Amino acid sequence: MTKIIDNFLDKSYFDNLQKLVLSNDFSWFFQNTVNINQKKDDLYFYLTHLLYTNNKPHSNFFVLFEPLLSKINYEKLIRVKLNLYPKTEKFRINAPHIDFNYENKGFLFYFNTCNSKTILHDKQVDCIENRGVYFDPTKPHSSSSCTNAQARFSLNVNYI
Predict the structure, then answer these.
(1) 81: which residues sit within 8 A by CB, 6+ positions away?
(2) What is the CA radius of gyration of the chain?
(3) What pLDDT, in 10s, does the model give residues 64-85?
(4) Which sign, positive or negative, has the C-alpha torsion 126, 129, 135, 141?
């Protein structure tokens, strides 16, 4: 069951998070593939910033995201990851994948508006800033690039 909530965060908090994530001072880390299903000759990459994994914060920035995460009503976090998908000349849909091969829930949050989409098992979701999306990460889904902004900036949360 996919659930979309626009204006997920209050404007002031959203503006502060957006300013941080899109700033020149925020650290991003190179990933040479988007997921394990990407073809070997596909040179597309993306950047990530892992906020939480292995039952503990992985970044000093994690604390700044706790008010956002508290709105999700999770019992246990599995992974919290920021994603930066660079602009491409032609729109591309990345290979479908599942996040983990065990029962969990998913939440996506978009920091900017662009012509990127998330392709889920039951619908396509447009990338609109301050939009939250609850989805089933155990079913194949795909991210995509954008062609009308420098990059797509999003947050991916897996939880129980």
Answers:
(1) 48, 49, 50, 51, 53, 155, 156, 157
(2) 15
(3) 999 999 999 899 999 999 999 9
(4) positive
Place of tokens 């002031």: 12
User: Residue 44: is its pLDDT beyond 90?
Assistant: no
**Cα 92 to Cα 28: distance, rounded to the nearest angstrom:** 21
Domains and CATH numbers, the chain: 3-23+32-159 (2.60.120.620)
Report the alpha-carbon distance of residue 8 to residue 18 in Å, rounded: 13
Query: What would the mean pLDDT of 23-44 be, rounded to a whole number?
Result: 72
Report the C-alpha gap between 52 and 86 in whole angstroms: 23
What does pTM read for this prediction?
A: 0.92
